[in-house]
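Below is our example:

___
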Amino acid sequence: MFELFSDLDAYPHYKTRVTGLKRWATEQKQDIASVMDSARAYFRQKGFSDSAITVKTPSKNLGVTEDILKESYEGYHAIVVGRTGWSRFKDWLVKSTAMKLVTKIKHIPIVVVGGNPEAKHFLVAFDGTHGAMKGVVCVGALVGKSDNHLQLYSMIDSKKKFWPGEDPYFKIDNCTSRIVIGKEKIGEQLEEARTRLLEEGVPSERLSLRIHTVGRDRATHIVRQAEENNFGSVVVGRRGLITFIDEFFIGRVSDQVLRLANELAVWVI
């Protein structure tokens, strides 16, 4: 940024202002370098080798969002961004960079992190769609044989409730055997999801299932389920085709989850 004002040295009236501008630019560079050093140290602490960590601090060209979008096509498998930037007021006033990126990046997963969640355990919102299955495959490939816990979380209309009693939940704590849920199609889809996760090395004892009878406000139930059961990460799939009218009036569930999940890591896949 300072390069834009570098020729002001030639004008006596601006010399004092240029000195202040230089000081500000230097402080900004130092702050950025300090943040990057802390991030590098954290990755090392978590077991990443130096060769696996690359630090880039390019100058803004097209704009923050567009520059990240362009960079995302350089061989990355996912993008991780904080929910808010340096200025929370600016994020409130206009759409944050994270939210802009979610609408623009569709070729790889994007993870939006709010607060300081314990992101090891995953709640996978699953409705049987292609987008939801992509989320299952992605998380399975990432987590694999680790000690993370995964829960497949599905919601159905109360009219489709197939289990006895008044409990609004049907749950399986350890998915060690085949999922069979009467004639409901979601049962076949959940079994396929379970099979894919097992193929990726996820231990069956770390895989659970919950089916919940809910009304229309599904995003609220997803976030509440995650927060009340210590799932720091929520995985949601992108919808395929959706009309402008549908999106305007009801919004996508993934968008609603993003707005509500202030203290969670939301994976949009």
The first helix runs from residue 15 to 45. Residues 89-94, 240-250 have pLDDT under 50 and may be disordered. The two ends are 35 Å apart (CA to CA).
